[in-house]
Amino acid sequence: ANENLLATIFGTVALLILLAIVIITLPRIVKKIGFKKWKSTQRAAYIALAFIVLHFIYFENGYFLKSNLGKTVLILSLTTFAFKLLSLALKKKKKHSKLEITHLTKP
């Protein structure tokens, strides 16, 4: 049995999510799907971050997380999740400027 199988699966899923985000960010695709759908797909980065954290937890039995850098990455990741959950709980939505929306969806 491969002891890093779960880590490999989690890392691969994160990579695929991030790759999809990159592809969806191409200007012609943003124009086709519209700003709101594009913005919602960008939120998948939080899911990718969760898979990245799981990847590091399972890779070599958490070897990376035993280092100071690993602990720092974990704390920053958990802080990011906490702030996102807090913003969802408070229903705070970022208002995008017309310029930002136009830039992303211009013909």
Short description:
By secondary structure, the protein is mostly helical. The protein has helices at 5-24, 27-33, 35-42, 44-58, 68-89, 98-105.
Structure description:
The chain is built from six helices and no strands. By secondary structure, it is mainly alpha-helical. Helix 1 (5-24) packs antiparallel against helix 4 (44-58). The longest helix is centred in the last third of the chain and has 22 residues, at 68-89. It is globular. The termini are far apart. The mean pLDDT is 85.
Name some characteristics of this structure.
107 residues; mainly alpha; globular
Low-confidence stretches: none
Largest sheet: none
Count of DSSP-assigned helices: 6
Q: How many beta-strand segments?
A: 0
- The helix/strand order is HHHHHH
The radius of gyration is 17 Å
Strand content: under 5%
Class computed from helices, strands and strand pairing: mainly alpha
Helix content: over 70%
Shape, please? globular
* Whole-number mean pLDDT: 85
Distance between the first and last residues' Cα? 52 Å
Question: Which SSEs are present, and which pair or pack?
Answer:
Blueprint: H1 5-24, H2 27-33, H3 35-42, H4 44-58, H5 68-89, H6 98-105
